Amino acid sequence: MAETQSRGFVFPGKKRAAGADDFERDDLFMANKSMLPTLSPAWENDPTAALASARHEFGEHGGVNMSIEASATFTVMEPETMRRMFAGELGPDRDFFIYSRHFNPTVLNLGRQMAALEGTEAAYCTASGMSAISSVLLQLCSSGGHVVASRTLYGGTHALLTHFLPRACNIKTTFVDICDHEAVKNAIVKGRTNVLYFESMSNPTLTVANIPELSRIAHEKGIMVVVDNTFAPMVLSPARLGADVVVHSISKFISGGADVIAGAVCGPASLVTSMMDLHQGALMLLGPTMNAKVAFDLSERIPHLGLRMKEHCSRAMAYAIRMKNLGLKVIYPGLEDHPQHQLLKSMANKEYGFSGLLCVDMESEERANRLMHLLQNHTQFGFMAVSLGYYETLMSCSGSTTSSEMNAEEKALAGISPGLVRMSIGYIGTLEQKWSQLEKALFRMQDSTLFSNT
């Protein structure tokens, strides 16, 4: 859909003719200048304010919501225009589209929102979180390349770095304790290492990375910093803390509905442009295309992400405190005894909380499974399911599910106990109603070793 702008809003308009002004570049997938955190110090540290400053795109007939551009291919008025589009002279910056694997107006609008959310110049949305991660790494690393990564990562990412990239691309990874900055520094080989990769809040152990310090170390060595911020949207803004690239599985908190699979790459415009290059771009050539209908659905959910994250985090904090008071071994970054509690406080965006996830270590897989069975099937506290960010509480035993790609030694090094139960805390029902369900299941365990204080 063509558009014109007025006071930051976007209105329907006619497609430009392919005239001389078509050479003026202002890429659509780049964040509008009003979206960047440069106008007000308050906006720099508040993703909600940044999202509100992003331009609003109306529908084709003046609807308050944008239209869905569901076409796979696009027509032009003149044959010469098609040639110029393939030559790179005309593109989505001037509202010329070829094919939706390249660019799609609806998907580009979601990209603008993601760039605003993370405070980056540009963003491109993909078909899944893993496609975003793999595309970034393949763009930044060539055959013979090297990645330094946290040893505590989502199992799929760990498998990509451990098995697939070495076999298929001759890209190797050195895994380190991301909290040991000397180890990180020593693992980076100048002239060989391309990327430092870690999660802002690790899956599943909820270890918080020191993003400013790690970024400083990496940049001193001349390498890029890629951060997976799936666990902490709104809570942390890695790019504002020094990271170069932020990746997301939008399927989680950002979606909130457990009904779509999607990802995003947020970073410098130069990187996103290179990833869409016709000859060398990882996104362009691998084709992890997001469906326009999915992009539309997600664009309608991002505006209330801040409200949802506040409630997820508030509930998680309340449960973590109460479970700890019962004597359970709880891992939650909002608790003062968490090793990185003060670090997270120093980095976090104010008023969004500390995380919507918590972990309880049941020590053995048998007890973990027993607790989850009671929580789902007897007290209706939540569901046994992977993923996170849903309005219902989702819980899984990480060692045998989302981290199952790691062997026993790797899980031990990552701090993943066999009985570690990861809970993505939902916000359905009242807090007291859901706490009563959780508490009943805990006491129904009838296991004196469950509570260290009894």
Describe this structure in words.
- This protein has 454 residues and is an alpha/beta fold.
- The chain has a domain at 305-450: Aspartate Aminotransferase, domain 1 (Alpha-Beta Complex).
- The chain has helices at residues 41-44, 47-53, 79-86, 105-118, 129-140, 155-169, 181-187, 211-220, 269-275, 282-286, 292-301, 305-325, 341-347, 365-377, 408-414, 431-444; strands spanning 3-6, 9-12, 56-57, 122-126, 146-150, 172-176, 193-199, 224-228, 245-249, 263-267, 330-331, 357-361, 382-384, 393-397, 420-424.
- Helix 5 runs parallel beside helix 6 (155-169).
- It is globular and about 75 Å long.
- The N and C termini lie far apart (65 Å).
- The model is unreliable at 1-42 (pLDDT under 50).
Describe this structure in a few short sentences.
The protein has 454 residues and is an alpha/beta fold. Helix content is 35%, strand content 15%. The N terminus is likely disordered.
Which structural traits does this protein have?
Aspartate Aminotransferase, domain 1, five-stranded mixed sheet, alpha/beta, PyrdxlP-dep_Trfase, seven-stranded mixed sheet, about 450 residues
Describe how the helices and strands are arranged.
Layout: E1 3-6, E2 9-12, H1 41-44, H2 47-53, E3 56-57, H3 79-86, H4 105-118, E4 122-126, H5 129-140, E5 146-150, H6 155-169, E6 172-176, H7 181-187, E7 193-199, H8 211-220, E8 224-228, E9 245-249, E10 263-267, H9 269-275, H10 282-286, H11 292-301, H12 305-325, E11 330-331, H13 341-347, E12 357-361, H14 365-377, E13 382-384, E14 393-397, H15 408-414, E15 420-424, H16 431-444
Parallel strand pairs: 2-3, 5-6, 5-7, 7-8, 8-9, 13-14
Antiparallel strand pairs: 1-2, 4-10, 9-10, 11-12, 12-15, 14-15
